[in-house]
Amino acid sequence: MLNNKIRVLVVDDSAVVRQTLTAILLSDPDIEVMGTAADPFYAVQKIKEEVPDVITLDVEMPRMDGLTFLKKIMGQHPIPVVIISSLTDHGTETAIKAMEYGAVEIITKPQMNTKKFIEESKIRICDIIKAASKAKIKHKTFVNPMIVPPKLSADAVLAPVTKFSMIKTTEIVIAIGASTGGTEALRVLLEALPVDVAGIVIVQHMPENFTKSFANRLNDLCKISVKEAEDGDSVLRGRALIAPGNKHMLLQRSGARYYVEVKDGPLVNRHRPAVDVLFRSTARYAGSNALGVIMTGMGDDGAKGLLEMKQSGAYTIAQDEHSCVVFGMPKEAIKLGAADVVLPLDEIPNQIIRRSNV
Q1: Is 179 a catalytic residue?
Q2: Has residue 39 been placed in a domain?
Q3: Residue pLDDT, tens place only, 109-159
Q4: Same domain, residue pair 210 and 258
Q5: Which of 301, 312, 320, 323 is catalytic?
Q6: Among the four 70, 89, 223, 341, which has the fewest Cβ within 10 Å?
Q7: Is 121 annotated as catalytic?
Q8: Number of domains in the chain
């Protein structure tokens, strides 16, 4: 019988992390761990014996660091790579850099003494591995959907919007949601926007502490300013606010002023921050004064929220399949009829500029 399981090679110098990741991955019937390696040199030997579908890779290891190994993989035999990093500042910067070199996604190393974190991360880690296996740099693998506990919707954080009566204003708010492949897609999008573009709020599925480094890197590259959102930050022209990892971000309004609320809360669609939470709050407090964009990513987070934005009068955009690393979130939004238009990544900036009257 053909084995359709996703074969994963775990590369990490910590025996404890290797064991923990192996246990997490083996809990999913659609994933198998074909091997583990303490450093890239051992990993090369494993790959010579059998090519994995996905590699999980630490960034700080003896003999050869993960970034150097990643370059070699992408230059010689591209394989989907998921970066596993600790939360040190140096490790975070390296992981962000790894995304530029072709890594599919970043996840946080399991916190060994935090049972809740392990349980929450278990499904998320497996989902990311599945997303990586379907990334366009590798042949897609069809697997049976994993049986998981019921997902919480945005209702767990913010009540559904039942009435849309937002008065039209001259200020537009741009709400963007992304996941797998989103770090590079957001760079392309934000770099193309002018300094006076309407205020932007973003949820990119990333672990805690990574979002600050990600925002700082984008701030260095873009004409607009980019920062990790803090509770109470104003949404201003020429600025993008990125939801901090492990926190939900909601749009709020006081008179003519838009600002963000950063708060704790349950996982929504197995994510925190969740795109649906941001989009629902944008539908409620901005209505037709908003523009919504859903981009590359695994799963369906943001699809229902984008529909709520459209129903509130917002103009909505979905990234097209060809330019997505994983055509999951946009696909689900399109299926719901939530997108006014479906565009390739390189056309989204101009559409944003036109529709926000910059």
Answers
A1: yes
A2: yes
A3: 655 553 565 566 788 889 889 888 888 763 323 234 344 455 666 676 666
A4: yes
A5: 301
A6: 89
A7: no
A8: 2
